Amino acid sequence: MPGTRSKRWTLVASALALLTGAVAAPRAHAQAPEAAAQPAAALTPPRVAKFVEAKRPEGTPPEGAAVDLELTIAADGTLTDAKVVGSAGDALDAAALEAVRQFTFEPARKGDKAIPARIRYRYTFEAAPPPSPATPDAGGDAGAAATPGDKPVAPAPRAGRLEGRVLSRAADKPVAAATITLLSDAGETVGTTLAAEDGAFAFADVAPGSYRVRIEAEGFAPVAATEAVTSGEATTITYRLEAAKKKGATEYEFGATASIAAPPREVTKRALAPEELVRAAGTRGDPLRVIELLPGVARPPGLAGFIIIRGSSPFDSQAFFEGAPVDRIYHFGGLTSFVNPRLLDHIDLYPGNFSARFGRKMGGVIDVGIRDPKTDGFHGMADVNLIDSSFIIEGPVGKRGAFAVAGKRSYIDFWFKNVIPQDVVGVTAAPVYYDYQAIYTYRPESGGKVRVMALGSGDEFRLNLKTPPDGDPTLRGNFGQSTNFYRLQALWQRRLGAHVDQEIIAGAGWFAQDLAAGDQLGFSFSGPEQFLRAEWRAQLGSHVKLIGGLDGYAFQLDVTYIGPLFQSTEGNPRYFSGPLTGLPTATFKGRYSTYRPAGYLEALIQVGERLTLVPGVRVDYFSEIEEGSVDPRLTARFKLGGGTTLKAGAGLFSQPPQYGETVAPVGNPALGLSRAQHYSVGVEQSFGPAGSVSLEGFYKRLYDLEVNGVGPDGNPLLVNGGKGRIYGLELLGKLNPTGKAFGFVAYTLSRSERNDYGTAWRLFDYDQTHILTLMGGYKLGRGWDLGGTFRLVSGNPRTPITGSVYDANSDFYNPIYGAVNSARDPAFHQLAVRVEKAWKFKAWQLASYLDVQNVYNHRSQEGLQYSYDYSRSKPVLGLPILPSLGVRGEF
Amino acid sequence: MTAHHNRILPISLALIVGAILAVLLAAGCSNDLPVASQLERTRVLGARVEVASDPGRAEVSPGEAAAVSWIIAGPITPTTLDWAFALCTTGGADCSEAPQPLATGSGTPVTVPFTTPDAATLGTKLLPLMIGAVCADGTLGFDPTGGLPTCSGPGASGTPVRFTVPVTPDGEVPNHHPVLSNDVLEFRGATWDPATATIAAPGDACDATTGLPVVSATPAGSDAVKQEIRIVSDGDDRETFTPAGKTVPELEELQISNFTTAGKFESSYAAIFATDTRPDADVIVKWEPPSASTVLGGSEVVVFHFVVRDLRGGLDFTSRALCVVAP
User: Fold this and answer.
1) DSSP code of B291?
2) Is pLDDT above 60 for A629?
3) Contact between A521 and B307 using a beta-carbon 8 Å cutoff
4) Is the ipTM of this complex over 0.85?
């Protein structure tokens, strides 16, 4: 491109815009003045307003060199971050950085609105060009000026033009902001430009000749081609790019959330990057276990396996898997999650003030999504450790499809019998769990995506008590439980017109669970379930995006139940103070069904350049109680600039009774909704791609909670008579996994209280005043990876026992309790360490890992164990040091 | 403790199952807290209704005069044994009105006479509840705030006790106590004479000449050898009845509580299930002799008590003894 090969050190810019808060990448503005006029586009990349020439350091080689930089430019045009991503040596790197830091920029724009941007920028130090050949004297005698031996100079050829479009092969859609670099045959950069929003690009005034063209775009494999430019003619080419492995996929088998993030709809969203998901020490590489380390998430007791979010009951929060509610995310004991971690795409935690698209719960939401199977070839992975084994196989199907199959099974049952006293306990079914997933994705030529998924999970554990336990002489016989579910789920995404996106998720499945506690107590149920989620997202102009959806859930279960009348056990230690068979019991056998349709509407409103408002409303109906709810919600985000964002939110959240609690005679048909009001304010400070810090205060007011009353027959009866209040602060400092190190510091200070029937406020069963988590990892190099997690958490509240009364009817001592939750266990603290070594071979990779929980073997107190008459006690200690050794192979 | 977000069953039952399973998993771990079967202090082991006009009946009728016998046992005879009882009615776990004092006394036997409230008072939802305390080597009192009896003082041994007196529902056949006097107990396969319980007191020195079965104490550093005790029921122990909510009659279950003054039972409880329809249904319980280091004087009499409940208010008990000698 004439003009670029000047004697000066010339700036050659290539930009790969990576915008935050934008829906689509902008079209970059080529720096060279000869760049073709860009067609009008909604997005404009940043451009250099003031260029500063770098001083080439003494002693550097004379040949050309290029330093690749990543620049972060704020919406006001200031450069907030610059770092080297492609080095040309320390001296040249430093010179390029020094020059760039003196640049001023015009910020990127979306329409008329300035937006922050992150771009890749190549600062090229060109070699001094060779001296130009002598030119003939235009006015002299043609032969007089020539010296013997001079060659005649041919007239300069007319320039040509190279232009075309960049499209994706799979969807045949434009790849906006793809970088197109034009290189000479010798490999020198002639020019660089970015594809426009419609994929178009152009190099004007290109000297005729042969060129190499390199096309690169985020999420696509690079393409290189050789093209010829003819004098006076335009060469037009269309390039189609294949989807590439996600960033870091050679080390991690699943991708991250989309790089271009949609505007946040919630006040607080804790999103986890894949490196954090699998490298967190103490989680055995299970991404869903990392949720427990986030701020606002309390530590569950022992092997409870449930999640306590911002002081809410575990049953006030909901996990969603690909848009559909799931009863649990862990196999029993919380040892491992129910889906292969390599399939996970994102795990987002919304501790409160969540979007109107989620409902029927008043605590928090965990949204789990899976990635699409890979299309760049066949891949597989197998993982073997001390507790279970898992595998995944995936690959393309034709040009537009892809599949993935994964499975996991435990083998605790192989050694379980060896640790159980066989003359006291018979093992009918040793603990076992399994899960499987099968996925097929297809991208139609018309665009969009269709995905079909089949998944299932099972847990089983059964014992036969040959003699009653000392704790309850009335218990004997069969004990255990089993849980199984199977689902077929389909997803359809497509664009309707130019401004509307549609996503429909529908599924059906079968759920079965049974539980036995002796020969006289137990339940079983099984039956089909169905769910549907349909959402439409419409961009109305540049300031408003409207989101509306339908969300339906239903099941029809055949139930057999013999057991205690439903009571609330939270804050109710007396429930466990007598023989199990001494509790008032009831029976139920029949069909239990529920139909829960819902609709929601939400708007993302950009007010000016800084303020984003997200008002929403959700309407639900619950057939089992014949009651509906209307829950308005509002969140707001205000960008102060410099990466600082203020945020606030308020909303109403409604929750129906637990399944079966409204069924007579075991429950109360008059039970109604429980509700919560969420309020939160906070501030986030982003440090670019490196990390962020956020501080948030929250307050939740709970009312109409289910508490234990007394029915007209004198038996226990659940009623809506309780209140709750939860308040606190959450602090999160994150170092993102962009380099060798990553990690976060999370601290929560909170108080969760309940009030039953207007009595004095008391602590919630799982109130934990202080929760501190330090988690980090570091790549040592040569395939070594090291990580650690430290937790310091307040002990759980406990109700003290001050004496006992002997019941001569059952030969059982009933404890006498002090004030509910007036005592507290000692603080919990634990260190976990993870070491992994990976060996990369030509076609595959092998990794061995050691994940040690409780490295210094501190066994925290998890409550008290009492003698038969409650006259003496001793601490119940948590798990000791627990190593997990595993091997993983993948290709 | 394992737990799930169970759909229908309250988390209570799931937690209970999880807690039980966790306890069972820890069964192999050491637990130095005393268990119910270890008679380390004077305690109440049970209570049974005594109807003078109908011995063997385990239930009273409204308005009927009867008595409740409290079974007391311990490793040694206490210096003092005081007791006090009161009566109220209950619809659940606690008195539905202020209890009325019944009797106080000292020493054994502990037998408390009472008159059952009349049918009008009981209605269909209330039952008589006897509450009290048996205080060994301590001072008996009543907690003015809670109304519960107390036993205080250094070395005192006592716990508040309660017994819900079974009342025969109108029109039904009353329940009767199991009868253990005819039951056979075997120790290591040999018949265990009931008279052994009266030969000597627990802790007394003994040898093979005392007429007691002799067992060697567990040598120091060795694993205890579990001794089998077999309890054989007979036709007097279990009645046939139709449980509430069912239509098919079934045999009573028997819950057997085991107690010993030395050594350790493998389990404090045993059971003969309703499904075991044998007329001579039996159950085996296992007992470990004490360590030789605890057998002071080289030998000691160990006393056993077996309290059998039919889980409908009926109760009987029997005792045996043996001699443990240091190896």
Assistant:
1) B
2) yes
3) no
4) yes
